[in-house]
Amino acid sequence: MSARQACAAVLCGTLLACGGGWEADSIFGRGGETKWIDVPNGRLKTEVYSSTPLSARPALVVVLHGDLFNPTPSYQYAFAQALTQGFDAPAMPDRVRARLGARPHVADVVAAGLLRPGYTDNAGDRSDGDRGDARGDNYTAEVTGDVARAVRALKERFMARRVVLVGHSGGATIAALVLGQYPDLADAALLVACGCGATRSLQPLTLVSAIRRDVTVRLVVGKEDEVTTPDVSFRYVEALRKRGVDAQVSTLPGLGHNIMFTQPVFAELARLLGNE
């Protein structure tokens, strides 16, 4: 990643002052139910939040964070909490809440923020596995398999009627890989600022032919994103459509990589859940 790209990599809830280091992440989901899930290479941490009331067969949303070393990832928890409990959740800073506007209606949903293999969160908890160098080098079959196993465990635990994967940046890449390697697992995916093109490891474009044709895939990308540029998302959508998959991409004018906590992302997810 170039210095310019590094400066553009302002991940959700974090601030990067080039030459000044990272500022601590103030978005940290609290009040969820911590679940450690056994996977082939150890355990993965999830923080689980639920809307109320909840049926015996809710929809399940699993949220995957992007690639970052410092500060430690936690915004996947806050996203899951905001989705199910509202934008006034205690973990949501005023500066983020102010730009979200009205919360889309979401009902009968369990949302789990997943700490990817090898990463440590702001509570000091670490998921087992290989983190790599956070440069697109750990999108491996091993990592994807562990994430898929965790999703499957959550799906079975909550008897989910529908599974939606949500990923940001590198997390979106892994979600796309899960669609291709474990086609029976998810019904839909929302890929935000997806690095869906060439990577140092597995590539989502090479797995499109294995994706179920009845899966719904939506991508959202900032028009000014210099980390995962819009053309990558458009190429991936084109490949999905050729496969016969219902796939669309939306670009957000004037925005870059830091778009996870924006109204269009939550609204797109509400539509995938059938709540809007």
Distance between the ends:
38 Å
Portion of residues within helices: 25-40%
Give the DSSP E fraction (strand runs of 2 or more residues): 15-25%
Structural domains: how many:
1
| SS content category | alpha/beta
Question: Per CATH, which architecture?
Answer: 3-Layer(aba) Sandwich
Reported by name, the CATH topology is Rossmann fold
The number of distinct helices, counting runs of at least 4 residues, comes to 7
The H-level CATH homologous superfamily, spelled out, is: Alpha/Beta hydrolase fold, catalytic domain
Overview of this structure, please?
The chain has 276 residues and is α/β, with parallel strands linked by helices. It has one domain (3-272): Rossmann fold (3-Layer(aba) Sandwich). The protein has seven helices and ten strands. The strands form two sheets. The protein has an eight-stranded mixed β-sheet with strand order 3-4-6-5-7-8-9-10, sandwiched between helices. The longest helix has 17 residues, at 141-157. It is globular, with a radius of gyration of 17 Å.
Task: Provide tags for this entry.
276 residues, globular, alpha/beta, two-stranded antiparallel sheet, 22% strand, eight-stranded mixed β-sheet, 7 helices, disordered N terminus, Rossmann fold
